[in-house]
Automatic annotation (TrEMBL):
The chain crosses the membrane at residues 21-40, 60-78, 113-133, 139-162. InterPro entries: DUF4395. Residues 14-164 form the DUF4395 domain. Keywords: Membrane, Transmembrane, Transmembrane helix. It comes from the Bacteria. It comes from Microbacterium fluvii. This is DUF4395 domain-containing protein. Coiled coil: none annotated.
Amino acid sequence: MSDRTDAAATRRGIDPRGPRFTAGITALLLLVDAFLGLTGLSTSGDLATASLAERVADPAFVLLAIIAALFLWGVLSPRTAPWGALFRALVQPRLAPPTDLEDPRPPRFAQGVGLFVTVVGLLLHLVGVPWALPIAAAAAFIAAFLNAVFGLCLGCQLYLLLQRAGIVGRERPAV
């Protein structure tokens, strides 16, 4: 690899500890949301008779909507997303430089998977499907927990499988 190629790879790479930090905060928020969902409207048996306004005002719904917005932010603008910015401003300067950098595409795809799971839970909750919201929060929690604690990013693994199949991450041919 030439020096120019090394510099380009460094600019595109991200510190792999950043997504794990983000996953830790996200896992904590999702754990709280799963608890709220288990103790709230979606599991009480009153969801079917609740009005749309009552479903939207459910604390578990509100928190999961905020988490979904954070996932969307991570997909659309990962450099400005709050947890990544917090990591870069407060945590990363106190750490030794990373030994290697990570391709930013798989973690960004993982944010999209988290967004998909949470939005499905939100929509099913709105239409009155019992248990949908805490199940979606729990599924997203498991993925975030595995990433934060063990460094196993399920969304990243899915991205790599889809990349091997030629579905995502294909380089555009030079014209």
